[in-house]
Amino acid sequence: MARRLVLHIGAMKSGTSFVQNVLSENKQHLADQQQVLFPGTRWRAQVSAVQDLIERGGPRQEAISPSGPWHRLAAEVNDWDGDAVISMEFLGPRSVAKIEQIQASFPGTELHVVLTARDLARSIPAMWQESVQNAGTTTWPDFLTAVRAENRKQPGPGKWFWNHQGLAPMARRWANTVGSQNFTLVTVPPKGAPSSLLWDRFTSVAGIDGAACSLDVLANPSIGAASAMVMRDLNAALADDPLSKRAYHTYVKHALAKRSLADRQRAEPVLGLDERWVRKRGAEEVDRLRELGLTVVGDLDELLPQPVSGVHTDDIGTDEQLTAAIAALTAAVRHWASLEPEGRQGAGRKRRGGAAKGAGKKGAARAATESEPEDDE
Fold it and tell me: ∠ at Cα 299 (295, 305), nearest 5°?
C-alpha cells in the first residue's frame, strides 16, 4: 500500500489545472526519482475515477463496480509502496458519507487533504467564464445576482458556485472527517507573485522536491469578456436542441473556446469586478476560515478580495462580440480544414463527407468530459 496519499480536492479555479499539468508533465520523474505516484495513464483517468466515485457507492446509489474507474485508480495507489497524489477539483463539495467512502478505499494509507483557495473577487469572474464554457446560459449580471443571493437550496448558478467556492464549509467538512491534522489549506498567491509560488506551496505539503520538477507546461487557456458573451449566446442558441455532452466538449469547449477564442485573450478586455458586497462577503469567509484553526500554507489575508481591473459586459458592444465571433469561426474553420486529406476534390466530396462524419464520432468518443456528475447528496 502507499505510505501517504495526498488528495488535492480543489477548489475550482484555484490553480488546479496548473498543479495537475505540472504533476502530469513530471509523472515519470516523480515516480522514478522521488517515489511519488501520480496515478492513471493520463490525468483524465483521475477525472473518470472521481466521476465514478461521485455517482456510485454512496447512500441511495448503485454499488460501485469492483472493476470500475475508481477501484482501478485506488488499486494502483494501494499497489504502490511510496507516496501518491490525486488531484481532482470535483472532490471538494463531497458529503461526509462520500469522504468516508474515499477513506475506506485506501486502508492503512495516511491520507492528507489539500484545499487550494483563491480570493472571491477573482473566483467569481473565473467561475462565470467556466460556466459559459460548459454550456451555461446565465448572463454575467444574472450570475452576480445568483452568487450574491447565495441560495444553496435553489438549483442554478448560485448553488453551483457556492458548492465549489464555499471554502469554510468545505474545509470544515473535510477536516472534521479526516482529522484537522490531516488537512491543509493552501492560498493562491496574489496577482503579480512568481508563477512558481503556488507550486512551491503545494509541494511543501505534498512532500515533493518541487525544485527538481519542470514547470514548463501549457497554461489553462481563458477567454476575454467579449468571447465569453459569444459563448453564452451560442449556448442559448444550442439549448433548444442541445449537443451531447461529449460533442459539446469536443467541438464547442475545446475546439471553439480553448483553441480559438482563447487565442484572442490579449486582444480583448478582461472581465472586471469591484463591488462592496464581494469584499464584505470575502472577508466573512476569511473570518470563518480563521475560526477553524486550520494549518495554512500562505496567508489567509491573500483571500481578502481586491478589485479586479476590467470591464462589465454592459460595456461591451455588439461590434466587439461580432469581431470575437468572426475570429473564432475563422480559427475553427482553418483548424477543421487542416484535418482534411489533401488532394480530395469534386468527386471525392461524398466519400470525404462520410469520412468526416465518422471521424467526428470517433473524436467525440475520445473526448473526456470535465462536467461534474450529479451530486451524491
Answer: 125
Pinpoint the alpha helices (H) of the chain: 16-25, 27-34, 44-55, 69-78, 96-105, 120-132, 140-149, 157-165, 167-178, 197-206, 225-238, 245-247, 276-292, 318-338, 349-366
- pLDDT single digits (tens) 51-65: 999 999 988 899 999
How far is the C-alpha of 27 from the C-alpha of 214, rounded, in Å?
Answer: 10
Place of cell 473518470: 48
Parallel, antiparallel or unpaired: strands 4-8 and 83-87:
parallel
Q: What is the pLDDT of residues 147-162, one digit of tens each?
A: 999 998 889 999 999 9
Q: Tell me if the bond preceding 11 is cis, omega within 30° of 0.
A: yes
C-beta separation of 273 from 125 below 8 A: yes
DSSP codes joined into one string, 12-39: TTSSHHHHHHHHHHTHHHHHHHH-EE--
Neighbours of 212 (CB within 10 A): 12
Q: Enumerate the H helices of 133-275 as residue ranges.
A: 140-149, 157-165, 167-178, 197-206, 225-238, 245-247
**Pair 199, 219: CB distance under 8 Å:** no
pLDDT of residue 369: 34
Check whether 84 has a pLDDT greater than 50.
yes
Q: What is the largest CA-CA distance in the chain?
A: 72
Give the end-to-end CA distance of the chain in Å, rounded to a whole number: 30
How far is Cα 97 from Cα 101, in angstroms, rounded to an integer?
A: 6
| Cα gap 76→78, rounded to integer Å | 6
- From CA 22, how far away is CA 39, in angstroms rounded? 14
> Is 24 in contact with 38 (CB distance < 8 Å)?
yes
The CA angle 209-4-375, to the nearest 5 degrees, is 110
Q: Which residues contact 199 (CB under 8 A, 6 or more apart)?
A: 18, 19, 22, 210, 213, 215
Q: Which of 228, 9, 241 is nearest to 111 (CA)?
A: 9
Helices (H), 184-253: 197-206, 225-238, 245-247
Q: Note whether 93 and 171 are within 8 A (CB).
A: no
Q: Does an H or E element contain 296, and which?
A: strand 295-297
Say what the pLDDT of residue 254 is.
Answer: 86
CB 367 within 8 A of CB 246: yes
